[in-house]
Amino acid sequence: MALETAYIQEKMTQKFGNKALNFSMSRDIFSFEATSDAIYEVIRTLKTEEDLNFHFLTDLCGVHYPDNDENHQFAVVYHLHNWVENVRIRITTYLNGENPEVHSMTDLFLCTNWMERETFDFYGINFIGHPQLKRILNMDEMVSFPMRKEFPMEDSGRTDKDDRFFGRTAQKI
């Protein structure tokens, strides 16, 4: 029997109630949200339940939404793949803008070690329980997080770039 998106939604809703929400098909990928306090258990369930079988984490990334309300300014997006049924899903969790933090997935998927460090390095999202959460690509001396949209992309003297076209406001730091 093929793994149906309705079945995944039913399993998540039964186990997590309103902590798993906003189920939809988005660009041919079944997507939903999980609250930040439940995301670890949601992903652990998707991996360990034999009838779900999502054993491969394809990607993990951060997103900054500076115009959203305080509790939805950052997001961590997880892409999982069930190789047996060839089903992919996307799970998003939103984080507080003042203190963006979420539980680390390194004990579930070893590949998240690099991805979480990269997300921390560029967005400042703290992954609780990560074995070595430190900068991975930027200099240790940096005090900012360069992918946050509060920082302009280019030198303000450039006339060929306009931050507004990249989802950033033209603010001076």
UniProtKB/TrEMBL annotation:
Say which species the protein is native to: Flavobacterium chungnamense
What EC identifiers does the entry list? 7.1.1.-
- What sequence ranges are listed for the domain NADH:ubiquinone oxidoreductase 30kDa subunit? 34-155
Instruction: List the Gene3D superfamilies hit by this protein, alphabetically.
Output: NADH:ubiquinone oxidoreductase, 30kDa subunit (3.30.460.80)
Role: NDH-1 shuttles electrons from NADH, via FMN and iron-sulfur (Fe-S) centers, to quinones in the respiratory chain.
Keywords annotated in UniProt: NAD, Quinone, Translocase, Transport
Has UniProt tagged this entry with the keyword Translocase? yes
Which PROSITE patterns does the UniProt record give? COMPLEX1_30K
This protein is called: NADH-quinone oxidoreductase
What does the sequence similarity comment in the record state about its family? Belongs to the complex I 30 kDa subunit family.
Q: Does the keyword Translocase apply?
A: yes
